[in-house]
């Protein structure tokens, strides 16, 4: 598995109301090498910020984040070829009119021939059970199908790491299970941000983030117990 390494990585944002900057992620040092890594925490805790550092959607204000030695701040393009990212709402990344066109867009840098690119896109859709929806408008898909399409577009370029930021939050139970099973069947290293405690229990290692810092790091069951206890006491 790739190594995702945080070395005293800190994120600050300008806060005019406070007359300066505000720290949203305290200095964090971690080495992540497990295949399935979960991140849980309350809304606004900093868990999505931590995840977005992995592919450079957020850059550290201090310290470093590397993926197999590649610094996300200095070699962002190379990192993003290795690290795919899916958002809570797939509408944030589905930009083309039809399903096949959306996957083709993802492949434009890696498959130069247009005929071959469409063929690869169709093969990718088939892998995700969307072959019959290839020429359908992305707006005509169900919530689960949209999330599958977003995953298909990201995974078409075969990244080594997939960061999934609350991928099941907008889904019903059936689609939550479908997307969850898909995520945990992937060969890629998975970094999963979620509020779904049943889903995160399937991870090899879980980080609990509160108030901008990792307050627990360990076994999934122990992490969930820690998080539930913290919420109950709060």
From TrEMBL:
GO molecular function: ATP binding; ATP hydrolysis activity; ATPase-coupled transmembrane transporter activity
Residues covered by the ABC transporter domain: 4-234
Recorded family membership: Belongs to the ABC transporter superfamily.
Alphabetized CDD domains for the sequence: ABC_cobalt_CbiO_domain1
Keyword vocabulary terms for this entry: ATP-binding, Nucleotide-binding, Transport
Pfam families on file: ABC_tran (PF00005)
Name of the featured protein: ABC transporter ATP-binding protein
One CC-aspect GO term: ATP-binding cassette (ABC) transporter complex
Protein biosynthesis in keyword set: no
